[in-house]
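User: Predict MFS transporter's structure from this.
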Amino acid sequence: MEINKRMRLRIIAASLLGTTIEWYDFFLYGTAASLVFGGLFFPKSDPDVALLLSYATFVVAFVARPLGSVIFSYIGDRIGRKAPLIITLTGMGIITTLIGLLPGYNSIGFWAPLLLIILRFLQGIAMGGEWGGVVVFMNEHSPKGKRGFYGGLPNLGVPLGLLLSTAAMSLMTIVAKGDAFIEWGWRIPFIASVVLVGIGFWIRSGIPESLVFQEAKESNNLSKYPLRDAVKYHWVSILKLVGVKFGENVWYYIITTYVISYATGLGYSSGSVLNVINIAALLTVFTLLGASYLTDFVSRRSMYIAGATATILFAIPYFYLVGQSYSGFVIVTIIALSVIWPFMITVQGSLFPQAFPTNVRYTGVSLVYGITAPLVGLAPFIATYLNNRFDSYIAIAIYLMVAGVISLVSVFSLHLKMNKKEIENDFQKASKVVLK
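Assistant:
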């Protein structure tokens, strides 16, 4: 079966819209955790403790991601790439809608935080099978010589999802002011998720299975135990790539999640803080496109090194300027999210699938994603603790710098290809590897 231009566009739309919807669902929770959940789902005796507990439920999803990675990667490497992508999208939408309907602590007592934790855990399982699956799917459908660009496209769903979620929350802070936002306003964006998921489900249901996977299946080249084989034969690559992803993820979640509560604590209104995130996310869509295009022409090592080095150098100036003025907050957040982050995330979209053969590719990439998740999910929690413990942004900045160094060391340990021909040959070679 040959993929024509129309079907290729549908594949791009399915990947991009699906990841956008899933990240919309995911970031809604992060924003609500910063603004609402502490006082709504937990006892109000100590606001700081309530906020930390709220962030703890945020971490639960990251702890669940490895389980989701194992479950959905098995389906992806044994049955097909398409099925888990439909399941994760549908599950994420249903769970997000249920969170929007969940009563608060004053209504149902301890059941409120318990049910919130359960739903958040299930949300994490769904997320565990999404990113790895969609970048593998895009790589296996990409035209020759454009694997870097196509592999980077799913990452657009991250800022688009962030943009939609923060825009929805910003709108509701205007429509439902004061107590109305706490009582019902925040729930509307969660419940609206079911409509978006319906659209995404329709598009993803109409895309073809990966031709690379079909060929491996027809020639009986699939692994019976993809998890075992991925760990046994590729554990070194998995650990190195976890290090690569670690610094990028910590940077992203601090800038997009923790900074919301940090900035409101400095006196900025929640609406103005969300507007800053919106502006940065919108610009990031365009910078990600440019960075994705560059990955087919420029050294991937150089791109990632530039991004990781920037996180180390920019961490202290970032928090210093956030505290100086609102205009400073706007400028440094745009630099942090729209300029620095794209150089790290776009490389991963094509590099990670390239590191594994077809029969364990979904598993390998998802394991990297899943293993990293619990480590970086603690980022907002750690940042909150450091700020309360030392009463200084320097401690938070040092945390970011250490994460950047870990990624820098990890990327130096990788052997990355530089030009189109080498990248294409590398991927094709990996696709034909058969584990006996």
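The chain has a mean pLDDT of 87.
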